[in-house]
Amino acid sequence: MSLEIPADILTAIHAHGEEAYPEEGAGFLLGTDGSHVTPRRVQAILPLPNSRERDARHNRYLITPKDYLQAELEADRRGLSLIGVFHSHPDHPNRPSEFDREWAQPFFSYLITSVERGRAVASRSWRLREDRSAFDEERLSVLTGETKE
Hints:
Blueprint: E1 2-6, H1 7-20, E2 26-32, E3 40-48, H2 65-78, E4 81-90, H3 98-103, E5 109-116, E6 119-128, E7 135-143
Parallel strand pairs: 1-3, 1-7, 4-5
Antiparallel strand pairs: 2-3, 2-4, 5-6, 6-7
């Protein structure tokens, strides 16, 4: 399992996490799904507002059913697939929480960025096991050069 992401898209994800700080920021990863021999590749993102109630946004995010529908439609419009979710962990490690595991879907990649004191410091990507028991880290490859859309 691996996920490729262009450097400029990862930079945009980091900027979104910094803008949302001290709350969690989130959005969707759009791209192409890989296979057992080819990596999954992010080609665009769809940043979202955090719809969680205000007093819980520092350690939770909420993506609404309407957000999912809009993301599916946008992915279709671009000839891409909805391949995952990105979100930030303000002043916490970039590992999935138990809350993340409870709400995750096995197919998606979950790119988590640690934002410390308002600065994005590192991102890691994870996939939930089919039995929903735990996440496994997937290799994250950052591609140089700009994305062409």
